[in-house]
Specification:
Layout: H1 2-29, E1 35-36, E2 47-50, E3 62-64, E4 68-71, E5 76-86, E6 89-97, E7 102-106, E8 113-120, E9 125-132, E10 135-143, E11 150-159, E12 165-171, E13 183-184, E14 197-203, E15 216-222, E16 227-230, E17 234-246, H2 253-269, H3 273-288, H4 296-310
Antiparallel strand pairs: 1-2, 2-8, 3-4, 4-5, 5-6, 7-12, 8-9, 9-10, 10-11, 11-17, 12-16, 13-14, 14-15, 15-17
Helix pairs in contact: 1-4
């Protein structure tokens, strides 16, 4: 009986914490204003959708995997364990300027389209979807769950038209970081076959303690063109990958970042980059998820709250 009582207490405590998280989630992300999936349409309680983005960028959906985290389309990425500052300059998470804040838009502004933004908390993927007569463009953004050093942007295009489809890309890199003194890697020093990549490395400006080592961070990312042209009757997927490593968990900082990026592209070429990510999330949900039947809104609230706990 004592064991049963302890288990019951733990279950109640978990439910109470879940409702507390939901209250916070609801107030910050305005769940009540989102077009939540309708169970009558056989939609999942783990997908939150809207046809507009919040005007306040602080209310954007966030993605994370325990090592990297960012708000979608923001100019900042944060790395586990990497802090800057001390004493009168309080220690805080060091800001890494984002190389994955990519926004897509159609070049032809006269085309009638429908737009949808969604956060799938079961798969850990944020999607921006634009659909028109004869084409679909989807931008998928995720911090890879299995390969935690990766921040991935996939752009998938289905062009069934008889003419090329042009998709414009814009980046939000933001200002120079005040927390890390990054140095760009010259093109002449990039590894062979890396002409389509860029890289930088640096160390935190101020350690938390006077005798602490300066933590280093290396970033390798895919160059992003301003324009994608998809030929008629063609389906195509574009990958823009950022690999970030720190000296806290790697040896050979910059080399490790290049290695992580190479592994990602090899997996993408084999068609398994997204699959490996969603499979890892599925395993996590199987271990930690809570299934609720008969109350769709409650199920959404619990799943949304758990996502922000697990990511």
């Amino acid at each position: 009986m004592p064991t049963l009582t302890a288990a019951l207490v733990k279950s109640v405590a978990l439910l109470l914490s879940t409702f507390t998280l939901y209250a916070s989630f609801n107030s910050i992300y305005h769940l009540s204003k989102l077009q939540l999936c309708d169970p009558s349409n056989n939609m999942s309680s783990t997908v939150f959708t809207s046809d507009t983005l919040p005007t306040d960028e602080r209310l954007m959906a966030t993605i994370g995997n325990g090592f990297l985290a960012t708000s979608v389309f923001s100019d900042s990425v944060f790395v586990s364990g990497v802090y800057n500052g001390r004493r009168r300059e309080p220690s805080h998470r060091a800001r890494v300027p984002s190389t994955a804040a990519i926004r897509m838009s159609l070049v032809d502004k006269d085309v009638t389209t429908s737009t949808m933004y969604s956060l799938d908390v079961q798969k850990g993927v944020f999607t921006h979807r634009v659909e028109g007569s004869g084409f679909i463009v989807e931008e998928l953004i995720y911090t890879h769950r299995k390969l935690p050093n990766l921040l991935v942007v996939e752009i998938r295009v289905q062009n069934s038209q008889d003419k090329p489809l042009k998709v414009g890309l814009s980046k939000t890199h933001g200002n120079k970081s005040e927390d890390l003194d990054f140095t760009e890697v010259p093109k002449s020093e990039l590894p062979p076959g890396s002409s389509d990549l860029e890289a930088k490395y640096g160390f935190i400006s101020t350690t938390e303690e006077a005798n602490s080592e300066r933590v280093g961070v290396a970033v390798v990312w895919s160059k992003v063109p301003e324009l994608l042209v998809i030929q008629p009757k063609t389906n195509q997927t574009f990958y823009f990958v950022t690999a970030i490593v720190s000296t806290l968990n790697t040896v050979g900082n910059l080399e490790s970042a290049f290695s992580c990026h190479k592994e990602a592209l090899m997996l993408a070429k084999a068609g398994g980059l997204l699959a490996a990510h969603t499979e890892a999330w599925a395993e996590l949900w199987q271990q930690s998820g809570i299934e609720i039947e008969g109350d769709f809104k409650l199920a959404q609230a619990v799943h949304g709250s758990l996502y922000y706990t697990l990511r």
